[in-house]
């Protein structure tokens, strides 16, 4: 009897001891991005950040070069910073003010949910915030305090290694949010799971119509989601509403940093998700493209593509635009897109912002070659 009790007591010690690391492993994180905080100082520096510079900037709300305070507090969402310039409505906004007041401002019909026609921002964020996938965003989903869905980052910025997938090591949100998006439970997020099917809507999006909720041909103050100052600056005749003419005359960024007289040349690296075209465009601009070159999309030398798309006619299962040929030339304007370019020579810019070019492939590291694209804006001298 004594020997049996002794044996049981000895066995009980290691069993109790082994539960400690399991509990530690499963305990909730004490801060956002905790795994990146290598020196355990409660802050995330740019050197510690695992992701793109754009992704870091998304989370650095106060622009001080480090993530700290509310930026790393679990459940915190970005709110207004009066020091920031007013939002330019010609640009697609990702980092909204996730507050009850802003939800109410967007909820035009006061039914407690935001439908697609009440959403004036990028489609990927709508899908990310719509946690129950009912094609509407309710107040709780908008506030988003219960879970960290990393709504500020887009798929391309999360896919740091450009392999067309977001692994857990690249994900900045919670495990619960990752699991909810991972529909096929393979431990990776495909573009389709995060973004959904991307149609080529680049030529049909009309932001004025999106803002004109009551469809009366003008934008009233209660349909405008930015400051009184930005509204007044566009209300040129001071009649209390913004007409389409006024919106299109004042809604874009008129600057450009391009060099050259009427066009410029961009070398599009087939291993980079996006190449900066060094050109700011305005909504309604007619962009011109003259693209050439051949890329190879795998170790198979026959797996080639020209700007119009794969010479074999194949498609990539998780490319940015699923219903177009793999390898074709694509674009985005700030957070809006992707937009199919292919062998088209002109495209009308749906929004204002910075132009980026890329290739429609889902796995970029094994690509070789580049496209040479001459891009310009009809009727404007680039300087």
Plain-language structure description:
- The structure is a single chain.
- The chain has 383 residues and is α+β, with helices and mostly antiparallel strands.
- It has 3 domains: 50-61 and 86-195, no CATH class; 207-250, EF-hand (Recoverin, domain 1), CATH 1.10.238.10; 263-377, Jelly Rolls, CATH 2.60.120.430.
- Helices cover 22% and strands 20% of the residues.
- Strand 13 and strand 14 (309-310) form a beta hairpin.
Give the terminus-to-terminus CA distance: 93 Å
How much of the residues is beta strand, in percent? Answer: 15-25%
Biggest beta-sheet profile: 7 strands, antiparallel
Kindly report the average pLDDT value.
81
The helix/strand series, from N terminus to C terminus, equals HEHEHEHEHHEHEHHEHEHEEEEEEEEEEE
Annotation, overall tally of beta strands: 19
**Number of helices, counting only DSSP H or I runs of 4 residues or more:** 11
Shape: globular
In total, the number of domains comes to 3
Structural class: alpha+beta
Unreliable stretches covering 5 or more consecutive residues: 1-26, 252-261
Helix content bin: 10-25%
- Rg value: 24 Å
Name the quaternary structure: single chain
Question: Which features characterize this protein?
Answer:
single chain; 11 helices; 383 residues; Recoverin, domain 1; Jelly Rolls; alpha+beta; four-stranded antiparallel beta sheet; 19 strands; 20% strand
């Amino acid at each position: 009897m004594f020997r049996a009790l002794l044996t049981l007591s000895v066995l009980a010690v290691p069993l109790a001891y082994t539960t400690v690391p399991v509990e530690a492993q499963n305990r909730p994180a004490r801060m956002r991005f905790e795994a990146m905080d290598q020196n355990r100082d409660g802050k995330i520096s740019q050197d510690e950040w695992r992701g793109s510079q754009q992704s870091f900037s998304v989370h650095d709300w106060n622009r001080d070069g480090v993530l700290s305070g509310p930026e790393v507090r679990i459940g915190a969402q970005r709110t207004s910073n009066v020091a920031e310039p007013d939002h330019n409505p010609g640009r697609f906004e990702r980092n909204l003010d996730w507050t009850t007041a802003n939800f109410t401002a967007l909820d035009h019909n006061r039914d407690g949910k935001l439908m697609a026609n009440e959403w004036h921002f990028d489609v990927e964020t709508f899908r990310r915030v719509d946690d129950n996938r009912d094609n509407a965003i309710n107040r709780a989903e908008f506030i988003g305090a219960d879970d960290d869905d990393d709504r500020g980052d887009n798929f391309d910025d999360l896919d740091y290694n450009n392999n067309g997938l977001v692994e857990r090591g690249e994900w900045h949100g919670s495990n619960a949010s990752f699991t909810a998006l991972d529909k096929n439970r393979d431990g990776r997020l495909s573009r389709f799971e995060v973004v959904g099917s991307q149609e080529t809507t680049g030529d049909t999006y009309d932001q004025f119509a999106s803002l004109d909720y009551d469809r009366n041909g003008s934008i009233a103050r209660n349909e405008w989601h930015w400051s009184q100052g930005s509204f007044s600056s566009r209300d040129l005749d001071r009649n209390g509403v913004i007409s389409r003419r006024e919106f299109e005359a004042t809604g874009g960024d008129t600057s450009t940093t391009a060099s050259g007289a009427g066009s410029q040349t961009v070398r599009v690296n087939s291993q980079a998700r996006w190449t900066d075209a060094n050109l700011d465009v305005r909504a309604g601009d007619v962009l011109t493209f003259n693209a050439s070159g051949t890329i190879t999309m795998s170790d198979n030398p026959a797996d080639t593509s020209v700007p119009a798309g794969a010479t074999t006619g194949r498609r990539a299962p998780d490319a940015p635009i699923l219903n177009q040929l793999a390898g074709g030339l694509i674009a985005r304007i700030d957070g809006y897109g992707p937009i199919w370019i292919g062998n088209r020579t002109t495209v009308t810019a749906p929004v204002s912002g910075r132009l980026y070019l890329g290739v429609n492939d889902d796995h970029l590291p094994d690509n070789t070659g580049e496209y040479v694209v001459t891009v310009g804006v009809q009727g404007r001298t680039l300087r």
